[in-house]
Design brief:
Strand order of the largest sheet: 4-5-8-9-10-11
Shape: globular
Strand content: 5-15%
CATH topology: TIM Barrel
CATH superfamily: Metal-dependent hydrolases
Helix content: 40-55%
CATH architecture: Alpha-Beta Barrel
Structural class: alpha/beta
Low-confidence stretches: none
Number of strands: 11
Order of helices and strands: EHHHHHEHEEHEEEHEHHHEHHEHEHH
Number of domains: 1
Mean pLDDT: 96
InterPro entries: ACMSD, Amidohydro-rel, Metal_Hydrolase
Largest sheet: 6 strands, parallel
Pfam families: Amidohydro_2
CATH class: Alpha Beta
Number of helices: 16
Distance between the termini: 16 Å
Keywords: Lyase
Protein name: Amidohydrolase
Organism: Streptomyces durocortorensis
Radius of gyration: 19 Å
């Protein structure tokens, strides 16, 4: 574990809006259906709040100079910038999906090129078309991006699906980062009030997706895969004992992964965005102080305006504080 107090402060969870992508899909007939599903999942009150919230943050989401000024005020040296998950568009046909990931990768790379010492980027892959994903990853890496951002599932397909094996294999071979960031929750209208779609739905989706990767044996087959889980991995890390009990007790639960589920937490990286200092300390304990990375969800309202202060509030030992603040990310991302 690198505990150098002189290491840069690295925020691995920051977002970018890409008007180029939305222009591509604006006339697609399936877009209206996807937006209607999103509206049902979130509910009218959340939709009414989301629009003004995003509008007030457009500068930080699109303009490099505005982003850098905000980073300076936060004391953040490097951001890992990923497209807003609203750009996944997993409804898209093959032709449209190819245009989406190519445009997203190129636009993200161009944004980061505006401040190359401060910004690193992640691209997109079309999870709804598994056979395109490895090529999409290569496209992202070819534009100088560190890897790609994915959701917790695609329609009708979980991350444990064998069709994703070429993606995991290529990511492992190249050392690419896979940033697991859910968008939408399949509990649907049960969470359509009080912003439960996000506050409950996102942690649920994180936990389900990580469980699929663990219990299916993906992490056994690809032990060097670099998975970074947003939102501290959701509910899984702090309730992993139940998974261990099932694996130890039931033949069906333990059929496909070789080790206790909790042991895989030390093969995954997690951002620090858990909104509670006690939960953050527990995440560091169960995953290891070398597996937690600073994350803010910049600049959305469910993020932290001052991620370093949030990290301070956990009162970690100094060596662990500096590891989470930036040294772990610098090692993972091979920053110099």
């Amino acid at each position: 574990m690198n505990t150098d107090p002189a290491c840069p402060t690295v925020d691995v969870h920051a977002h970018l809006l890409l008007p180029e992508v939305e222009a591509l899909v604006a006339d697609a007939p399936a877009l209206a259906e996807a937006r209607a599903l999103d509206a049902r999942r979130n509910g009218p009150q959340a939709i009414a709040v989301n629009g003004p919230m995003i509008a007030s943050r457009i500068g930080r989401l699109t303009d490099v100079d505005t982003r850098i000024a905000a980073m300076n005020s936060q004391g953040v040296d490097v951001q890992v910038v990923s497209p807003s998950p609203s750009h996944y568009h997993y409804w898209a046909d093959r032709q449209t999906a190819t245009k989406v990931f190519e445009t997203a990768n190129e636009a993200t790379a161009a944004h980061c090129a505006g401040a190359p010492e401060r910004l690193r980027g992640l691209g997109l892959v079309p999870l709804q078309h598994p056979d395109l994903c490895a090529d999409a990853l290569e496209h992202a890496l070819g534009r100088g991006l560190l890897g790609v951002e994915i959701s917790s599932h695609a329609p009708g397909r979980e991350l444990s699906d064998a069709a994703y094996e070429p993606l995991w294999e290529r990511a492992e071979q190249t050392g690419a980062v896979i940033f697991l960031h859910p968008f939408g929750c399949t509990l649907d209208a049960r969470l359509d009030q009080w912003y439960l779609s996000n506050t409950v739905g996102q942690p649920v989706e994180n936990a389900v997706a990580l469980s699929h990767l663990i219990f299916s044996g993906v992490l056994d087959r690809h032990p060097e895969l670099k998975i970074v889980a947003a939102h501290g991995g959701g509910y899984l890390p702090t309730y992993i004992g139940r998974s261990d009990h099932a694996w130890s007790t039931r033949s069906d639960a333990g059929a496909s992964c070789a080790h206790l589920p909790s042991s895989y937490l030390r093969r995954i990286w997690f951002d620090s965005l858990v909104h509670d200092p006690h939960v953050l300390r527990e995440l560091v304990r169960v995953a290891g102080p070398d597996r937690v990375l600073l994350g803010s969800d910049f600049p959305f309202d469910m993020g932290r305006e001052d991620p370093v202060a949030a990290l301070h509030s956990a009162r970690l030992p100094e060596s662990q504080f500096h590891a989470v603040r930036g040294a772990n990310a610098a090692a993972l991302l091979r920053l110099t």
